[in-house]
Amino acid sequence: MKLSLRGMALGALVCALAFAAPANAQRARDPQLLSDKPAPRDGCVTVKQPGTLPSADMLVDSAALAQSMAKFAHDFPIRDGKLTALYSVAFAADGSVERVAPIDYWLPQGEEPQLTAMVRQSIRPQRAGARWSVRLRVEPAAQTVFRVGRSEVCHPRSTTRFELTAPALSGLQAPSPIRVRATVGTHGEIRNLQIVRSSGEAELDRWVHDSLLSRSFEPGLVDGVPVMMEHDQDVRLRFRP
Question: pTM of the predicted model, to two decimals?
Fold first, then answer.
């Protein structure tokens, strides 16, 4: 009887650990993303670029925006002062502001556009370089009004398996694995398709390229916002007898 109870206890421990792992992962990502909302889908990752997050002063004209936030909090008081808004802020390669998109907010009904407009007007252009994005959390009535966090990226995902039944091409032996790079638009359409690892057979490469152009994807997401994004994927081939 004692052995049986001990086995049950160990089983309970294993189950507890299995449930604790996702919870711990969620808690680890929450402070970086400034949100407890789960990822939009499986496979999303927290972006590590820029290596060092910019301060709020580098990202926005924080002095002017803080005054606007104080007025907003005064004009629209709510219980406990829990006014919050979380934005995804993206910059183009030339440093210009590419996007300021609300991710989540707790504001008086109908006032989100006004707050977003104030935030957008205060974003500072950045130095030219690679494209990048961060999150900006604004809490008008809090002691710390601005916080900067990481973005979350979900790469495009094919809605079908990349498996093709190829025609019997004359002289074709055993082709090398094929890898393609698709530029996926905001609606999941393929904007461009390249063969980045050839089968070694030009005719087969052309056939694969043309066959895949009609495929569709779930678009890439940055902080839940659909964006154009490149995606590499292997193609599995089988041949007609």
Answer: 0.77
